[in-house]
Amino acid sequence: MNGLNVLLTGACGRIGKTFFQASQDRYRFTLTDRIAPDFDLGGHRFVHADLSDKSSLATLLEGIDVIVHLSGIPHASASFNELLPNNILATTYLFEAAVAAGVQRLVFASSAQTIEGYPVDRQITPGMPVMPANMYGVSKCYGEALCGYYAAKTPLSTIALRIGALNSRNPRPEQRPRPQRVAQPAGCRATAATLSGNRRREAPDRPRYFQQPLQASGFERNHTCAGLPTAG
């Protein structure tokens, strides 16, 4: 265990649970979600919380070094009314509270939906603007913009990870990730090289997708690592 105190939001979702179970011996976790965990906490702390209620955040963030923010509505079909409290307001409140609490870094779980509006045969390259195809993607674009704003205007370091998919260990052929069509931003290349890839044989390394950004140094203050399919 390296001493980092990590707040993991959305800890009871598929990605949160997978990341926690693979990393619980590396960090001191505070887990939070609106539902109770169905897995062993292994001595780590769980706090039931609704992040859209900002009154609970100051206490939740006491002593936290890094936040991995996974919570939110994850569905491409979600309506604006569903996304507003969960993906917009909760994320905004968390950034505000992170700065007030002196958190060092916030790792934001974005989505490949931020560029899903481009034609499927279009290679996405660094520097291209976002092009969401649904309101869920719009909410993730907003989160990425918050990362840039808070990195520029406050001491908080931010990293946005555009997640492609979370697949089972042995997905059926129709469930396997499509070939990656999103290039890595130049500023993220060193990190992304160890975190990305869509070959099934790399699945055991998938938790490094979040582990590396927690401790990465020598980067600019804000990064977006794009188009990285994951496997559970």
Give a structural overview:
It is globular and about 45 Å long. Strand 4, helix 3 (80-101) and strand 5 form a beta-alpha-beta unit. It starts with a strand and ends with a strand. It has a seven-stranded parallel sheet, with helices on both faces. It is of the alpha/beta class and 232 residues long. It is built from six helices and seven strands, in the order E-H-E-E-H-E-H-E-H-E-H-H-E. The longest helix has 22 residues, at 80-101.
Overall average residue pLDDT: 79
Number of helices: 6
Radius of gyration: 17 Å
Structural class: alpha/beta
Poorly predicted runs = 170-205, 227-232
Q: Bin the strand percentage.
A: 15-25%
Strand order of the largest sheet: 3-2-1-4-5-6-7
- How do the SSEs run, as a string of H and E? EHEEHEHEHEHHE
The biggest sheet amounts to: 7 strands, parallel
Q: How many extended strands?
A: 7
